[in-house]
Amino acid sequence: MAGVTLVSVAAVAALLLLLAGGGAIPPPEEAARMARFVLHNCDWGALATLSAQEGLRGQPFANIFSLSDGPPGPLGGSGVPYLYLTDMEISVQDLEINSNASLTVSLAQTPYCKKHKYDPQNPLCAHIIFCGSIVKVNDSEAGLAKKALFSRHPEMESWPKDHNWFFAKFNITNIWVLDYFGGLKIVTPEEYYSVKP
Q1: Secondary structure of 9-36 in HEC code, one letter for each residue
Q2: For residue 168, what pLDDT is reported?
C-alpha cells in the first residue's frame, strides 16, 4: 500500500509540474516557441536600464520586476511582457530619460531547472533576453494588461493608490534565446509573435 501511495504522489507531482510549466518544453530547434514558453512561464524578470541617477548616470542598472504576458495556463499568453509601474521607482525614473531597456527571463525561476539539476547559467536552463523599450499602454490595452498582471500578481490590486501606478509593456525589437549549447539564437519579433508557447 505504501508503494502505491508513493507512486501515486510522484505521478501527481509530475503532472502538476507539467501543468505549472504550461506543458512540455519546446525543442531547441524551435527558438521562437522557446522564447514564448519561457516568458509565459516566468512571473518576473531582470529589467536593465541606463541609469539617470547621480553617480551612476549612463551606467547599466538592472532591477527585478514582476511581469506577465497573460493569465497562467497553456492558452493564456499573448507574448507581450506587461508591467505595473510607478514613477516613484528608480528604474522607471531612468526610463523617463531613456525608454530603451533589456529584459531577461529565465526558467531558473520555475521548478524545471531544479528538477533537472541545471545550474541557472547552464544553457539547458533556458533564458531569453529581450531588447526594446518600455511604453505606457493605451486605454484600449489597459484591461488586457490588468488581467494579465493581476491574475498572476493579485497583491498588486492593493498597492497604494497614491503611488500613481500605471500599466506598461515591453515593446520588443530584438530577441536572443539561450536554450542549448552552441551560443545564442536570434529570433525576430515577427517570428516570436507568430507562434504559440
Answers
A1: HHHHHHHHHHHHCCCCCCCCCCHHHHHH
A2: 98
